[in-house]
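INPUT
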Amino acid sequence: MELSVSLYRYNPEQDKFPYMKNYKVKKPEKDIMVLDLLNMLKEDDVTISYRRSCREGVCGSDGMNINGKNGLACITPLSEVLKGNKLELRPLPGLPVIRDLIVDMTQFYEQYEKIKPFLQSDSEPPEQERLQSPQDRDKLDGLYECILCACCSTSCPSFWWNPDKFVGPAALLQAYRFLADTRDTKKQERLEELGDPFSVYRCHGIMNCVNVCPKGLNPNKAIGEIKSMLLTGTKEDKIKVVGLE
Amino acid sequence: MNKVINISKKNNIKEFDALIIGGGGSGMRTSLELAKSGLNTAVISKVFPTRSHTVSAQGGITCAIQSADPNDDWRWHMYDTVKGSDYIGDQDAIEYMCSEGPKAVYELEHMGLPFSRFENGRIYQRPFGGQSKDFGKGGQAARTCAAADRTGHALLHTLYQNNVKEGTNFLNEWFAVDLVKNSKNEITGVIAFSIESGEVCYLKAQATVLATGGAGRIYASTTNALINTGDGLGMTLRAGFPAQDMEMWQFHPTGIHGAGSLVTEGCRGEGGYLINADGERFMERYAPNAKDLAGRDVVARSMVMEILEGRGCGPEKDHVYLKLDHLGADVLNSKLPGICELSKTFAHVDPIKEPIPVVPTCHYMMGGTPTNIHGQAFSRNDGNDFMVSGLFSVGEAACVSVHGANRLGGNSLLDLVVFGRAAGKHINEELKSGGGVENASNEDIELAMSRLNKLNESESGYEVADVKKQLQTCMQNYFGVFRRGEFMEKGVKELEEIREKSENLYLKDKSIAFNTNRVEALELQNLLEVAEATAISAMMRDESRGAHARDDFPERDDENWLCHSLYDPVEKKLGKRDVNFVPKEVEAFPPKMRSY
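OUTPUT
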């Protein structure tokens, strides 16, 4: 049995336009991951370019569009994605392509930095750790696990339209990770920066982010939480309604 | 790609006070310290920093913060680490790590690391292998601070976030090729290129810190990321500097059979255990007290013994099982969620219902560039140590040495933050008090560019993928969990041939932008340097100690080998170096029989 792999190819030094190139490979006997298949192809054609590092779904290097859906090549088994022995691999949509499956992630990282992704506290740190109850710590579950693979943001139509302005699901998930952290004391300031028309309100609940997240996270829910904090504030901080002018 | 960099023309030169090669835990802890100090600091990383291998660390960071046990003592942690190292860890360095550890861990918490918590709000700690109370007399300790089973991810992201906060300068997706060494044998920076644009630069610095991590990819089967190719060590060995304890490679007991992915020791810490084909909990026979939480070297060897004696599991009887189902879904989902995920993906097994097939898998390089506790690298001249001006190393790339012949679980993350922090502090003091190095000449730079230029000009030669496979197979066959002189001699011979090929690679793809063929070729040459150092060191150490287990020399030989090995890459010979037995505050722990 043969697999037909259609690969997005683009080398800026040689190609005026990107094109799809077909590769025929013998279907492996056991179920392998998409990344394993790419590695096999690269042994024969060393010019094929893609990022990869941990090969176990925790570093976020190999996000790509696999038969139409964003995912991590290293934890996507062929059996889950093959359509009649056909596989189409494209770079993550919506970002400039550097070469083949490698996209320029600058805008994605800039949005991440914009939300101030670090703990901010007014109080001097104690001699030991800051205390946090297990229940408060549980609020960070489903948030801190993000691996910045960009599968979500590059599947989001709002991000495609305004990658320079819309924070996007990945960075908003992290914005909420710090809003939800009981140790962070800059909730008011954080919310004020999220209240403009582009930061949170550009999310229209399309839910592609939830559908593709390889870690099973739910940016849409986090965005909802931020919106509700913007409307009602949080009890402890008495946050005013902002951003609805 | 530019082939020449001319100092007087000043193009393609970027100048910094401190340059850190590697954006993993140790590199970013160093850079954080330096960025806060106001020095002009840059981190160069061949991947975006959060893609570094620290992200894969699972179980935790071991440190006596007295959370699980208010009477815990860093001296007990020190005792365990010395014993774990099979007595060739430097006791001054181990003392420093264990006593400074709590400060370094609290700092991480203050930076925002989302540690798991106990009911009283303090950091959650779990039992790990080789841990004891009261200097081995008080039973199992619980000393490993954890963020579920994603501690490395939480730590790496926290460090990146705080570097963003402090405005650290990152050169992401840049690859360091070779060290630039001036006529006084000082290190003045590196030759590196942007993987995306192909621009080749001389990155000049007063302090160059190698934080390039391990090199587990010298083996065919490893828990390590594909990027763990020993790039820093490759550079120092090519520059003629020695490497210490390179025969000491840790095989983690629980890599997923077939895939190599790590399954944390925290699984056994939470109450999981290993069983053979008969369903027997065999570790009770090998380590009656600590059982499944004996040192990793002990557990890995016991597993291989079970397999060799025909009690392995599966159709090929080539692995054993890690049983977790008795812990229940609640514990597994809250304490080990990442393991459940990995196990389903790579072993097609849900640990809530079935055991995970596991096998000892190459995991960690205890050896590396020898340094003192400030991260300063040193070399040897006529049997005397001397500091290499301008050169530092931290983390897995370095051998400070706190792990000796066998690292304890949870001590690698501690090593990263304690010594990254220490190196940052030292470099700050040194540079601010006028320290630094002299300039390099155009000839020095040309020499450091020669490897890259040769590869770029290659018109024929060997294929990268082929040579890499040969190297990995050779190391896997002859330098695994158990070793024997005659096989290792064969391995060393094979490596000579592989070196010949590795020095004559054919770079098929000559394009500039994001040429991963080029990066992989350069990485392979680094792997070769590390593999050769490993092979020769392993062949020469004729005893068994820690992770280095020889069939033909099964006993530990303190008379001849209670010392570090020091591999000289120029002569390809093995020397010896004294182990430090003079800690500052406590009395040294003398060598004794190591049993669990």
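end of record. The mean pLDDT of chain A is 94.
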